[in-house]
Specification:
heterodimer; A: alpha+beta; Ubiquitin-like (UB roll); 25% strand; globular; B: alpha+beta; Cytochrome p450; six-stranded mixed β-sheet
Chain lengths: 105, 397
């Protein structure tokens, strides 16, 4: 099973990616700071993460809908900003490291 | 093209009449029966598949390349023709283009400046109703914010706006199969489409309104000009009844479960969770549909190209395979993944506004109302919507 590392307030936690997305996996492991208010539909910008390391090329491109929501994040948007609900879990994302945005909603 | 049974139906079938009055008013046992038959079951009376398990509904909604919207998401092809080309009934790049226009005023960022005025409006309303004591919550409490605030933001001409509540409800009735309810509603739908085509036009729309922005987008070439009337329906249809019914459903649940209202009163931070729980238990829109574009197998059932599948949000939300004790109202459950707003690329574009309206209302109710005492209720008998036309309640302070 692929593994994902979440950095929350500087502390790293590595978990098995047993959810359908990086957001869903975070919820399953009670990773703090992922609110996911809209349930994973790219509608709320409360699962904002910064992709810090790992197989970046394996991640899907930012869709039109995700782009719109990334304009709405409370923590500043950066080059590596993503909505974690739009990052599906697949064997290819093994080793992904994301930093959870401090402010979500 | 009409909806007909595909050749060689395999997998489970059911002769349940899901649109019978009694089923619409109390669908839960029927939903359970369908869920227990399999992930999807073919409805012999309607020649469509029904997806009722949570995983099946989300699979259909999140696989838009197979289960397309551009052939319509309604359950009769006349209606699928009427709304052809609006945001709801489109896929891929065309959907991206029109959704971008519709979503602009509805993003969290765009809505932030509205929050305060919605809160003020909600608290003024609650003060007024509390003074009265006994009210019709389905109209006096639930309709105010959507009608007073949202209609203004959409910016349609005043003239005819008073018909909007009727139009929106009748339009959603036309989403059903060609039964008497649908046939009767088609006459009123004509009025709404006429208004969208002849009245909701530049010059008559409020300057700076959401509706006007649709025409601005057409002027820029972002969407086709002839799509503007059906795109008006993207705002006119779902901005009223759905939120109104959700508010009424919440009041009904709190009246029936005073212990849960107490929990919310003790900890108002539970309001968002409680709202999600109400939307889970009583999805204001119970079902839409998708057209199957290519043969598709899901958990052993083959749905042939050309068939249609009804996506039962209301049934998925009560699937015990996904939610333990699914019929129990638990304000602490916080089921953010409920299907009350749909899921996938066509998830409700107005969900942030709907949540904002509902939160404002219940945040205003929590400090003052100790009990909702329900005297009587009248449920709407509707093809796809679920809610109340009247809720006679006393607000105890």
């Amino acid at each position: 099973m692929p593994q994902i590392t979440y950095i929350v307030d500087g502390a790293s936690t590595t978990v098995d990616a047993d959810g359908s997305s990086v957001m869903h996996t975070a919820l399953r492991h009670d990773i703090a700071g992922i609110v996911a208010e809209c349930g994973g539909n790219a509608m709320c910008a409360t699962c904002h993460v910064y992709v810090e390391n790992g197989p970046l090329a394996a991640l899907p491109a930012i869709s039109v809908a995700e782009e719109e929501m990334l304009e709405c994040t409370l923590s500043p948007r950066a080059e590596n900003s993503r909505l974690s609900c739009q990052l599906p879990v697949a064997p290819t994302i093994d080793g992904l490291v994301v930093r959870v945005a401090a402010e979500q909603a | 093209m009409t909806i007909t049974a595909p050749h060689g139906i395999t997998g489970p079938r059911s002769d349940l009449d899901v649109f019978l009055d009694s089923e619409l008013l109390d669908p839960w046992a029927g939903y359970r029966q369908l869920r227990d038959l399999g992930p999807v079951a073919f409805l012999d009376r309607y020649d469509m598949y029904a997806a009722t398990r949570y995983d099946a509904v989300t699979h259909v909604l999140r696989t838009p390349e197979v289960f397309v919207s551009s052939e319509g998401v309604m359950m009769n092809d006349e209606m699928n023709q009427v709304l052809r080309g609006n945001t709801l009934c489109s896929d891929g790049a065309a959907h991206d283009a029109s959704r971008s226009v519709i979503v602009k005023p509805l993003t969290p960022k765009a809505l932030r400046p509205l929050q305060e005025s919605i809160q003020v409006e909600a608290s003024t309303l609650v003060d007024r109703l509390v003074e009265r004591g006994r009210i019709d919550a389905a109209t006096e409490l639930a309709q105010h914010l959507p009608v007073a605030i949202v209609s203004n933001l959409v910016g349609l001409p005043e003239e005819g706006r008073e018909r909007m509540l009727v139009w929106a409800s009748e339009m959603f009735n036309c989403f059903g199969p060609m039964n008497d309810r649908t046939i009767n509603s088609f006459a009123v739908l004509g009025e709404m489409m006429e208004y969208a085509t002849t009245q909701a036009v530049p010059g008559k729309l409020k300057p700076g309104s959401w509706a006007e922005a649709i025409f601005d987008a057409a002027d820029r070439g972002d969407v086709e000009r002839d799509k503007c009337p059906v795109m008006m329906i993207d705002y006119m249809g779902p901005s009223l009844d759905t939120t109104i019914f959700a508010i009424g459903n919440a009041v009904w649940y709190f009246a029936k479960h005073p212990d849960q209202w107490d929990l919310v009163r003790e900890d108002p931070k539970l309001i968002p969770s409680a709202i999600n729980e109400v939307l889970r238990l009583e999805a204001p829109i119970q079902a839409f549909s998708r057209y199957v574009a290519v043969d598709h197998e899901y958990e052993g059932v083959i749905m042939p190209a050309g068939s249609r599948v009804i996506t039962y949000y209301g049934a998925g939300n009560r699937d015990e395979r996904h939610y333990p004790e699914p019929d129990r109202f638990d304000v602490r459950r916080n089921p953010t993944d409920h299907l009350g707003f749909g899921a996938g690329p066509h998830a409700c574009v107005g969900m942030n506004l709907a949540r904002m309206e509902m939160r404002a209302l219940f945040e205003s109710l929590v400090p003052v109302v100790k009990r909702f005492e329900l005297h009587s209720e009248q449920r709407a008998l509707h093809n796809v919507l679920r809610g109340f036309t009247s809720l006679d309640v006393t607000l105890h302070v």
